[in-house]
Specification:
heterodimer; A: 106 residues; Helix Hairpins; elongated; B: 163 residues; mainly alpha; 8 helices; 79% helix
Chain lengths: 106, 163
């Protein structure tokens, strides 16, 4: 492996880790449900990149692609359900503040 | 190729941080779509073409449409939103945290003798991908079908008309 290639892989690890930090910080610090979903999506991008990087290093890129497609499907379903929840929250309370979820019955 | 990946990594980082930090939800959604598109380019450069196509069409396309629809359905005044969440204040520490984490990670990478293993050349073709996806990982496909059905049923339940 050339030194340049190793630097690229290390760079991908660093950027991916920083994106996970940014996504987690967004999860912790904001109350807006749509913004929270965006934070989750940003962290998921980093995870997807890590899976592809692992497949690239191991030479098993086809297996990595199969996993990534599964991750993408789950990511989309999570986003759709959370957006549906956010719209319902907006219809009932007039905003998308997750603190309103505490008032749910049940 | 390395230079292109470096540029894409930089753009991915910028788009990801902008998606988290921008106060306007619409701009955040567009930044997220940009991050997805750039990730698709990185995937293509690393040889995972099918995953790149999925990322570009589903994450950069479908998810952005869903976000924009949700934003257009909830037309709260921008100033009210800013007052309610104070996101600008809340997210102001993020750049400092990212700089500190980045410096620490680069120092760790430079100081430790840790090296990633050499990349093995992939001897896999599109046929191999089909074989793995449809035959070896069949359980994943059934799982995906169940997840999609669950999502669809949840959305139907969420949007049910109230009497």
């Amino acid at each position: 492996m050339s030194k340049m290639e190793a630097y690229v892989e290390t760079g991908m690890l660093v950027v991916g880790f920083l994106l996970i930090v940014a996504g987690c910080y967004c999860l912790i610090r904001t109350y807006h449900l749509l913004k929270i979903i965006i934070g989750v999506e940003v962290a998921m991008k980093a995870v997807t990149m890590f899976v592809i990087l692992a497949g690239f290093i191991n030479g098993k890129i086809a297996l990595a692609q199969a996993f990534v497609i599964t991750v993408i499907v789950i990511e989309v379903v999570v986003a759709v359900v959370a957006v549906g929840l956010a719209i319902n929250l907006y219809r009932i309370y007039g905003n998308m503040d997750i603190r309103n979820l505490r008032k749910l019955k049940g | 190729m390395e230079a292109v990946i470096y540029i894409c990594l930089g753009l991915l980082f910028i788009c990801g941080v902008l998606a988290v930090m921008l106060r306007s939800l619409l701009k955040s959604a567009i930044a997220l779509a940009g991050a997805s598109a750039i990730l698709a380019i990185i995937m293509y450069l690393l040889g995972s073409v099918w995953a790149g196509i999925f990322e570009l069409s589903v994450c950069a396309g479908l998810v952005t449409v869903i976000f924009v629809s949700a934003i257009s359905l909830s037309n709260t005044d921008k100033q009210d939103l800013a007052k309610l969440y104070e996101d600008a204040k809340r997210m102001s520490a993020l750049p400092a945290i990212l700089i500190i984490c980045g410096v620490v990670l680069i120092l760790i990478a430079a100081k430790t003798p840790f090296m990633l293993p050499a990349a093995v050349p992939a001897a896999e073709t599109a046929d191999n991908f089909r074989e793995i996806f449809w035959n070896h990982r069949q359980v994943d496909i059934w799982g995906q079908v169940i997840v999609v059905l669950t999502g669809a049923l949840t959305v139907v339940a969420l949007f049910k008309e109230r009497e």
